[in-house]
């Protein structure tokens, strides 16, 4: 059983997030504003090297691919 | 010792101990209907509510779930979940994806990421987003962007047909 997104290289988690975002953006005005708050991800990360914190990067919910 | 005596001896010994294995019991004739729990991570739509029938859009095909349905776990594709509470009340929700778990005791758990009644959607927004997604699907700059756009096109087309055939 192969799924289209698996063949395209997207994980199931990312696939469901994309679908959820597509549904949220299709709502009527007021519902959409409430729903889009769920889409935000305030997650940031930084790579530490030899005791020094590197650049603080946010995780982009749209692309989701974290490039370290 | 022949094989048969060995087996017979083991069988006799097993009978003397408490049963270590259960076999599925026959489904009892359910007096109650289908118990539905339809939940999202941020909201509970139905919790243990008795309904008559639920139609779901599974990746393996569209299904209608009644009481005493064969237990199964189904992945939902972006589509409509229709809850028929009784002969007069039917509610339709568009679900972005998730899973439906049909339990042996006639209870149905639907877990979805996003679900809204069809009235909450705006046809203009769908049309606009669909046009843009179709554009990106063919002329996006990266393979990843195009794949993401293709997924969005699928979802929005399903949403459009759900609204169209309301």
From TrEMBL, chain A:
InterPro entries: ATP_synth_F1_esu_mt, ATP_synth_F1_esu_sf_mt. GO terms for molecular function: proton-transporting ATP synthase activity, rotational mechanism. Pfam families: ATP-synt_Eps. Gene3D superfamilies: ATP synthase, F1 complex, epsilon subunit superfamily, mitochondrial (1.10.1620.20). CDD domains: F1-ATPase_epsilon. One of its GO terms (biological process) is proton motive force-driven mitochondrial ATP synthesis. This is Mitochondrial ATP synthase epsilon chain domain-containing protein. One of its GO terms (cellular component) is mitochondrial inner membrane. It comes from Gigaspora rosea. Belongs to the eukaryotic ATPase epsilon family.
UniProtKB/TrEMBL annotation, chain B:
Coiled coil: none annotated. GO terms for cellular component: mitochondrial inner membrane; proton-transporting ATP synthase complex. Keywords: ATP synthesis, CF(1), Hydrogen ion transport, Ion transport, Membrane, Mitochondrion, Mitochondrion inner membrane, Transit peptide, Transport. It is found in: Mitochondrion inner membrane. Residues 34-106 form the ATP synthase F1 complex delta/epsilon subunit N-terminal domain. Pfam families: ATP-synt_DE_N, ATPD_C_fung. It comes from the Eukaryota. GO terms for molecular function: proton-transporting ATP synthase activity, rotational mechanism. CDD domains: F1-ATPase_delta. Its main location: mitochondrion. Residues 121-161 form the F1F0-ATP synthase subunit delta C-terminal domain. The keyword Membrane applies. Belongs to the ATPase epsilon chain family. This is ATP synthase subunit delta, mitochondrial. It comes from Gigaspora margarita.
